[in-house]
Amino acid sequence: MSSPLQTATLQAALLNITSSIIAQLLIAYRGSTFGTSSSVLNPLGLDFISILQYLTSTLLLTPPNFKWQEYLEATFPGYPEQKGKQKMKLDDDGKDVVVEQKLNLKNTAIKFTLDQTAGAAINTSLFLLIIKLLRGGSPMDCAEAIREVLLPFYSLR
Description:
Layout: H1 4-30, H2 48-75, E1 88-90, E2 96-98, H3 105-134, H4 139-149, H5 151-154
Antiparallel strand pairs: 1-2
Helix pairs in contact: 1-2, 2-3, 3-4
């Protein structure tokens, strides 16, 4: 039986492959090159190297992202566990039903803020690093890509 981390990684990989193929097909369709490849093995002209690069980044980044989300939820639970038993109430038929828990808005706001600031900066930097390295870039190329892509999002210009 697979763990939730393995399941999430597999789902992310399948979604990544599917979206990469669809994106390439849409780009080819819009550019009027759809189906014009003369290759019997690749009649749609897909860039399999690019697909593998993005798949590799997904396989490398999904586990730490999964653990990050687990950490955020454990530290700032959206639905804090109630001490003791679950709250129950009687429904119209006189049967016990579990009372729906209320969302902890403060914790949800903290998780959202941390994920969209620190989490996004780290994840984007790692993605750029992985893609640049997979495409033969040097560490200096990686640093330049991070400066060009990531830093403008955080500047107050």
